[in-house]
Amino acid sequence: MYHPQVPGEPTQTTTSLVETATGAIQSFRPIKQIHQHLCAFHFYGYDMTRQVEAHHFCAHQNEEMRQCLIYDTPEADAKLIGLEYIISENLFLTLPDEEKPLWHSHLYEVKSGVLFMPRVPGPIERQDLDKVCKTYGKTIHFWQVDKGDNLPLGLPQLMMTLTRDGQLYDELARDVEKRFGVSFEKERAKRADMEGPTHGIHPLANGGGKGLITKLRELHCNRTDPSFASSQL
Amino acid sequence: MASSDKCPAPTPAKGAEAAPPGQPMTMGQHVVDKGASMLQALTPVKQISQHVCTFALYSHDMCRQIETHHYVSRLNQDFLQCPVYDSDDSNARLIGIEYIISDRLFEALPQEEQKLWHSHAYEIKSGLWVNPRIPEMIGKPELENLAKTYGKFWCTWQVDRGDRLPLGAPALMMSPQGVNLGKIDPELVKKRDDNYSISTEAIMESRVEIEEPEWINPQADYWKQHAKGFAIDIEKTEMKLRAPFP
Question: Where do the segments described as Disordered lie (chain B) (predicted)?
């Protein structure tokens, strides 16, 4: 996959000294909750032909909800390209009907083997993926690296995930298998007994079967508000 | 289908309690997480080197203002990327992402793109932007550089409107400014200050010698010159396919 280079000068010593200090002194509690690296693929909600390798770094809010930072690679210079929220089937069913299409199912990705946790032995990985199999996700990307953008340009993109065989490009699959030393076929066989959502994949999920696209709308805003006229700051 | 400026229908997904709905973590999940985190490098996340606490406003409704917690990592001298949370607690909610670029990179952006960005000079000089627990003396050398940057901040979870789960389309955020709707409610600032035992006003005074940027691009902070905010709509469309869907 192509990884565009972010423009800019190398970090100056004075800058990195300050950041070494802040890194040592401050607490990063929300970040310390991030315990897991998952690799998967997303495509754009309106264009299945544009597919992106997505490295998720996930933290649990509770047993039924995770929040994940998405990077384009698992390296130190990785670009933060988006985020994903993952919720249980129970929580998904509480969503308003207009909201459900923005969420996608994980059943196919998990059972086909293409979603995996790099470096984690199969038995441990499968314990967790057994749960992920039943969940729904909402993924938004802000940086279209597949287009060659070297900065996060444009609008947020609602992403979707694979739902059946034949969608994922072979070259992408083989490249990931090679770099991470995994075999999707072998994993698929080991995950044959995993089950998806108890009530089946909800018909409104995955865009309700339609494409979804984001659009920008300008609206008039009043620049002044009398209730703040006297605030000092 | 969904818009960043429309309120979603009331359901159990909206409510007064702060914590997201869901069962507490099981011991089994903790064990799996612990196991995974010992085996996996989590390298990109380890690059996060700064916590910044500041404020932001919704571009489609600037009367809605929130305290934000940015966890910053730097890719080079001109570019920073930050997941943004609603607090600094371990149960903080991930509410969006902000990107920060130097004025040099900003000037090279197309005008249509610049409209989505905001300036940081006021936020920094006014003391609203702080590095919690870091003495001013340590953070100061970088503030002059940061005062010249521009940010692009998308909010994906509107917790201030009571959403217990992330609903709707992403919302564009704007930065505090010294005029009109850009002014932050003093109550919000006081709450932040009390939490960290700091005084934004005192910090502002100590930042008086930080140089103002010579020029702030008028395409940034679009509402100031143009009285326009932005909303995002999510619409149905035909998906370009290479195989059947779903």
Answer: 1-26
